[in-house]
Amino acid sequence: MNRQDFEACLERLTPKQREILWLFLDCPGDEAIAKRLVCTTANVRAHLANICKTFGYTNGEGESYSYRQDVVQDFIQHYPDRVSPQWHERLTFTQAQPESPDFPGRPLKVNSPFYLERPYAEDKALKVLNPGALVRIRGPRKTGKTSLLNRTLHSAKDQGCHTVAVKLYRAGDDILQDVESFLRWFCLEISDGVELPPNLDNYWNDQRGYASSCSEYLQRHVLGQLTQPLVVGLDEADCLFEYPKTAKAFFKLVRGWSEEGKTSELWQNFRQVVVYATEVYIDFDIHASPFNVGTPIKLLPFKPAQIQTLAQRYGLGGFTQSESEALIALVGGHPHLVQLALYHLHQSPQLSLKASIADATSQTGLYGDHLRTLADTLSQHPPLAEAFNTAIATSGQPVTLNPKVAKQLEGMGLVTRNDVAVQISCQLYQRYFQTHPPI
Predict the structure, then answer these.
(1) 44-95: per-residue pLDDT in tens?
(2) DSSP string, 357-421
(3) 302 touches 108 (CB < 8 A)
(4) Are the CB atoms for 221 and 203 separated by under 8 Å?
(5) Does residue 175 contact residue 143 with C-beta atoms inside 8 Å?
(6) Taking the model in full, what pTM does it have?
(7) Which domains does the chain have, with CATH numbers?
(8) Averaged over 279-293, what is the pLDDT?
């Protein structure tokens, strides 16, 4: 944007928008701006979205891309003194192009330039800062759930909260299948995370019961000693679904702790983020389940504009809109599969996306390892493989499957689900598994 156009956009802002813009350029965060202006964060976000539109940054239909950084870049170009050092530092880091980005697959670092912001998700996740909050993040495997959790916990820590990330899969089968052992393990994870000495025996009482003992431990030993709120992230919570007795007991507590926050000042300091890949497929009393309350976040596939932004961060400046659309046609916008393609092109700049797509399902192709891993997983679970073969045989048409199996396949990212009907999630899987059935 040239200086004349920039000045014209600036002139069109209302006094209120200017006030919010100046605060935004100081980099305090939406919550701080809202507190300063005595308004809601939703009001601040709405004003910032309108400011972006005034500067010519608008979303297409169905898109929710944030253009805030683009506005900051315009100010750095024309009025650099208006922009805080924090913004300069953040954008300088984001634009730095590492020569060798990490191979996609693991959660991204909080400050990674290869993390693609999804404002609809990040903004909702920050509701965990509210007293007694319960936030639920759902999406298929490798869609960025853990990366979003890590950023949310990082933001909470910046706001002065204590944070603990509990990786439920670390408990192991022996602990997961026994309710009391799991609850004791969970309590130890929390106290270790906030660096309090474990003191379970003082609170665990057979007559009180393990569920009540667990709550007592958290309330008196943990929350009673902390001076700031505690945000707990429960990662890969759906691994508990394979242990129905433990899942029902624990998730009933998760909901109960959130509801305690409505009346108890101490429990208002206990906030939770639950991360899971698939909808619940075990029977829950709807009044005891945490999966129908709180703030839900469903991670969506990438859109063309988002893929082009990510391609630029990989140093692929010539990546076109049509290439983004071709990649979506192949992988359905699945974040991990998009990252794999861009990483592949970054590592082998002599290759074209068109050639990579043509060879995508071969043993040595772009997605060879990924596809073989999925095939191995399916072959180890015959009911899943059989149901998936049924879906493949319909050549992309919807088919009705057993609800539990359908939810598990959805969690793996292999199908999309509409009520009881499912269909293959992308061309890549249809092409590969049509010629390489898992059983």
Answers:
(1) 888 988 998 898 887 544 444 567 888 888 888 888 888 888 777 766 655 5
(2) HHTTTSTTSTTHHHHHHHHHHHHTSHHHHHHHHHHHHTTT--EE--HHHHHHHHHTTSEEEETTE
(3) no
(4) yes
(5) no
(6) 0.76
(7) 3-95 (1.10.10.10), 119-298 (3.40.50.300), 304-360 (no CATH), 369-435 (1.10.10)
(8) 82
